[in-house]
Design a protein that fits this description.
The protein is α+β, with helices and mostly antiparallel strands. It has three domains: 100 residues, Rossmann fold (3-Layer(aba) Sandwich), CATH 3.40.50; 75 residues, ATP-grasp fold, A domain (Dna Ligase, domain 1); 239 residues, ATP-grasp fold, B domain (D-amino Acid Aminotransferase, Chain A, domain 1), CATH 3.30.470.20. It is 34% helix and 26% strand. It contains 15 helices and 20 strands.
Length: 450
Amino acid sequence: MFDSVLVANRGEIARRIIRTVQRMGLRAIAVHSEADADLPFVAEADDAVLLGPAAPAQSYLDVDKVIAAARTTGAQAVHPGYGFLAENASFARAVTEAGLVWIGPAPEAIERMGDKINARNMMESAGVPVAAGTREPVGALTEAVRAAERIGYPVMVKTAGGGGGIGMGVAHDEESLGKAFEQASRAAARFGGAQDGTSPAILLERYIERARHVEIQILGLADGTVVALGERDCSVQRRHQKVVEESPSPGITADLRERMLAAAVRAGEAVGYRGAGTVECLVDADAQDFVFLEMNTRLQVEHPVTELVTGLDLVEHQIRIAAGEVYALEARPGGHAIEFRVYAEDPKRFFPGPGKIDVWEEPSGEGVRVDSGYVAGNTVTPFYDPLMAKLCVHGATREEAVARARTAVAAFKVEGPKNNLPFCAELLDDPEFVSGDYDTGLVSRMRKAR
């Protein structure tokens, strides 16, 4: 086991990783931008290094600066968290070439799964169900039109690289396909999804009208074993981006769950996966069937719900696997957990609303967990994702978890920046969500009803 870990991230996830690193008796090293100098994760680390200005390209995304910080502080390992450089294969290679331990999957696995088209093709070869779609990058609208006619409308149009729902759009006919293709092309060019600098790498897939977004947490152990730790339902989304997650999913049968877990293990084995990863799927709620969506080669924002139902510390297991420890692991999930992402954003239209935090009072009590990146007096700046905290609850049943969530949301006091806690309260009173019989269109229907 190494004795020190540099956390190449910020905010709540950096703070959460630092907590486990220190509990394991290791030295935790933070890196930060000028804008984040006063945040809790910097103060709580054993050492901290200023990377540069607020702009991510000059701080958190600067590979050379991060590696230099590791060398300067004597760090022996690097944990990337999520976002920023977490799924950057070049960064993973730079870490190992610098003689440091990379706490994550092999760079080759990151590359294979980072391209959604390549990932689809690999999973199909491994016997994992995939939706009808394109097996090669679509570089022109004329190609997209032919592909959509072959697949059948409606189709989902998205970039082959990147994540987070950026650039995704649904086309129901040729006219809307043109708009969706243009939107995805712009996103591909902006976020590095172009194959040759001119032709954007676009993927088309058959769109499932009433879908649930369900993902399976896997751990690839040091001895090559891949273990599935249960599923998370991530169907509460705005702009194709998750905002609430729960485990287990209330919308799948025991038979479907077993098939999905088995497929996730096959997916991990196909890519020789090590560490924590997530196999994301779309579930046809009516047919009770599923298809592979993508694989995230990192720790997920929503990992606390899996930790609450399994009792496992996923960051600890990431560290132990990276250190080469060999051990057996079996998960027996129990109870029900729900996570609410608390954003500095308008609760109606979901636009970012940064600002200084005047009041910050976190809820507590049985079954309540808060992973936060801020305290009163801090400022949520416009430079990064507006996620402030993750409010998580656990109960013996879904009904108990929902009841605890209502109490916790009401007790969470944030004043200063706009925040989406009123939306969380609204969701908890929505009959469709409370019933558990919802899909990815839930938030859109809620907004249309108002």
